[in-house]
Design goal:
2 strands; 17 helices; globular; mainly alpha; Farnesyl Diphosphate Synthase; homodimer
Chain lengths: 297, 297
Amino acid sequence: MSGLPQGWLKYVQELEEILAQALPSAETYPQVLHDAMRYSTLGGGKRLRALLVMGACAAVGGDVQKTGGLAAAVEMVHAYSLIHDDLPCMDDDDFRRGKPANHVKYGEAIAVLAGDALLTEAFAELARMPEKYGVPPEVTVRIVAELAHGAGSQGMVGGQAVDILSVDQLPDEQTLRYIHTHKTGALFKAALRGGALVGGATAEELEAITRYAEWFGLAFQITDDILDEVGDAQELGKPVGRDQDLEKLTYPRLYGLERSRAMAAECVQNCLDILSGFPEGAWLLRELASFVLQRSF
Amino acid sequence: MSGLPQGWLKYVQELEEILAQALPSAETYPQVLHDAMRYSTLGGGKRLRALLVMGACAAVGGDVQKTGGLAAAVEMVHAYSLIHDDLPCMDDDDFRRGKPANHVKYGEAIAVLAGDALLTEAFAELARMPEKYGVPPEVTVRIVAELAHGAGSQGMVGGQAVDILSVDQLPDEQTLRYIHTHKTGALFKAALRGGALVGGATAEELEAITRYAEWFGLAFQITDDILDEVGDAQELGKPVGRDQDLEKLTYPRLYGLERSRAMAAECVQNCLDILSGFPEGAWLLRELASFVLQRSF
């Protein structure tokens, strides 16, 4: 978690506790499955998606304490997606966040199942929002729809499918855009829109948050590609240059490093412009946008 | 679908249409992913889980027309579970319902993703229940919780995990019970309880339906094991004797064929006894229980 601005830490720490509580304990039968679920979800990651949930809720003047369920759910979905992405039949990555990938530690079968269970548990956690967090049932149902859309075949999973199908093919800008807006962008968008809904956003606010989500997602993906090219393997917790090895489409390959950096900066500026009419509560979304440019992991 | 009692056919046909509508079309980008999702969900299977949803709703005097969303969702969850179960790292089955398994036809990566997307789409479909089927949001949230619990790490996925971990070990009755009550029974229970909730069940009715679910699940698993031993490979659409090859725990291995058959009959009798106080609307649940004993596929 080093490198995170100080003001975020308390949110991240709270989220860790919520996640640790929401997931079945490692003593719950079948232990190895729950251990595998916790291994890939707890104690690691930037918690960017959870912070986006909280940031969007705060930006529309909502009560951040109510976002715990959704914040935990998006982190579970993110964790599941990493487990499945790392599988030998997918990206075949043996390391994640500096640790052995889930399938290396638990075997492929348990890794598939741990991912499946985390995705399922995310929706269980959403269903607890009315009771645990006082989110009205009709808002909860809308959020289930947002998360399912963002994570599904026309969202994150669709992006991963196109990514897999594009390996060993020539880069093409349209495909690249699709992969990124879906593989990573769709879950960002669900997190942000969901957080805004928890916060009681007006239709106008929701629309603004949606545009923020789109620029944010693009900025994130461009810097991700840049880091893969020039980042520090140890800080990233995974080998660099993997995307190149796999002949994947990346922004630096398409536009070069300099132009890619300028594009990311433009996206972040757009995020800040969108928030210019928002009150003080939007500070976290502002910081998150700026963080994307400076991040080294 | 041959072998299904005539009275059920119209329900099954309606369900097929609901499913065909609920899933993104095969022309929706990314096409191969949506094609893979539809391949394993449409035009096959007994639709037992969907019928249990409808049967439970009717048994408590509810409007069966309102069950479409949940019926489609449980069939999507079932389809996803079969895709993932068949993967080389799991049961490694190349055939399912007489067709090549999803990963044989589309490759492992797309099969994993198609399963993930079906699970996600199931919850998207539940979120559509208030608008499409007039199910109140608070009931919808309860049903999301039921499905997530039945499909998750302490339900279906938990059962599959223990099944995988038990391969090559000596049969043990407690483990066998756990696998069956979870791997297949938990989703039956979610289907039945969810259907009863759609139908506006009282607490007492819900409790009775839950007990029905438990006996039904056990009866189903015992006959499943028996069919694996003595069934017709063509009618089953998969090779017989696989469980034996894999050294899996089965009822015939533990108790012999005769005693297993008697146990299944007892379970079905318990189902019928539970329904004895129910009105005419419970006919489908009665027939479904009896069907389990007679089924040959």
